Every structure is written in structure tokens, then in C-alpha cells.
Amino acid sequence: MDLNSFIGIPYRFRGRDKTGIDCLGLVWLYLKERGIFIPDTDGLPMVEEAQTDYMERVLTSLDKVAARVDTPQSDDIVVMKLPGGYTHLGVMADNHNMLHVLLDRPSALVPVRKYRSRIAAIFRPERRRGSLLELILSISPPKQPAGRLRHR
Q: pLDDT tens for residues 69-126?
């Protein structure tokens, strides 16, 4: 995987590819290319960048697929609270540098220490074997029907 291909991607709300990406999309795509699968949404609507419930939603979703840790290392997800109520995510490219994208700047690699006072949590994703479908089914198994339908 070429780390440089993740630098300079413009910000796009709900973007999930290298033509435009938001912070969760960047984390999701970077980890996906490294063979680590996390959900790219919690299944609930995201209609604006600074949604008041987003921090709790992110923490709850990541608790299902990753372990909280104190010290970041490569491939860890960093969750931050930025001024203005923004929940922000980045992904560790190594033990000291985080890849992230901001509303007004393209994706960049920065020292994580720059954001240390804003860090809300650090997550270490589980390295799962199997397919993305298996991951999704383990997080949100299909609902079983309440009863049999009668056919006339």
C-alpha cells in the first residue's frame, strides 16, 4: 500500500474514495486497503458535519470492533473532539504520525502529539480473518422474523 496515495485527498462530506473523503471515510479506506475492516457508518443518518450526538455514536460503534488503548500505534483509530463541537477521526500511519482530513484542508500526515489535548479515545481495530460480510453480520446479525406469515 502506498501511504502517499492517501495524502492530498480533498474533503467531501460522506466521501468514501480518493476523489473526496471525510475523516471517517479516510480511516475506513486506509484500513480497508491494509486488510482491516471497520464499518463506514453506524447505520443512522448523518446530515451535517457537527452533529451533536456523533461523538457517542462513534465511540459506541468502535467499541464493537476495536479495543480502547492508551498509546497509539500503527493502524489505530484516534477519535478527537475539535472546537465547534466537531467529532474528528484519524488513523495512525505509524507510532507517531496520524493521517486525517479536515473540512478546509486536504488529507495530511501530522504528528499525533499536535492533537493530544483533543483526543477522546484511541481504538485498536481487531484484525479479523474472513470477509467484510462476515464482519457486518457479526456486528449486526439479521433480525429473525417474529412468526410465520400465513399464506392464503
A: 999 999 999 999 988 878 899 999 999 999 999 988 999 999 999 999 999 999 999 8
Which of 121, 31, 33, 35 lies closest to 79 in space, CA to CA? 121
Cell of 30: 486506509
Neighbours of 30 (CB within 10 A): 23
What residue ranges define each of the domains in the chain, with the CATH number in brackets? Answer: 3-129 (3.90.1720.10)
Residues 104-141, buried b or exposed e (16+ Cβ, 10 A)? eeebbeeebeebeeebebbbbbeeeeeeeeebeeeeee
Q: Taking Cα atoms as reference points, which of 21, 1, 19 lies closest to residue 11?
A: 21
